[in-house]
Amino acid sequence: MPEAQHPPAPGLPTTVAHLNHTVVYARDRRRSAAFLATILGLEVGAPFGPFLPVDLGNGVTLDYYEKRDEPIQSQHYAFLVPEEQFDAMIARLEAAGVTYYADPGHTEPGRVNDLFGGRGAYFDDPDGHNMEIMTRPYARP
Per residue in 14-49, pLDDT tens? Predict the structure, then answer.
């Protein structure tokens, strides 16, 4: 039986894949979603089934999902942020008492990096995920 053909909806990708959403495991989805939303200056969306979304504003949503009975494996999430909002994000980390680092190994506390002509910092979320904010994307070979 041939596959059904559906015409693409207006505004949807037709030639490349776009990340739409990903699940972020958390012990407490509300606490973790609120933490990241606060740092990035975003809002937590309405629950969607077992998920609590944080819309990043570029068509990608982080869907927080609770895993209470098993360990949470640390993941890395990197956010390209506007230069003019970077200092405010660092200030929100400081106000929350969260240490940020210039490097992913967390050996340079309280410092930011200047990779690729921008600025960046790493910090842990409440579940130990290694979050990164950066004002310039990495230059790929």
Answer: 678 889 999 999 999 999 999 999 999 999 999 999
CB within 8 Å of 75: residues ≥ 6 apart: 24, 25, 129, 130
Cα separations in angstroms, 137 against 82, 94, 110, 114: 11, 24, 21, 11
pTM over 0.70: yes
For β-strands 61-66 and 120-124, DSSP reports them as: unpaired
Q: What CA–CA distance (Å, rounded) separates 43 from 73? A: 25
In 3D, which of 58, 19, 22, 28 has the Cα closest to residue 125?
Answer: 28
Taking Cα atoms as reference points, which of 21, 22, 23, 35 lies closest to residue 93? 35
User: Cα-atom radius of gyration of the chain, to the nearest Å?
Assistant: 17
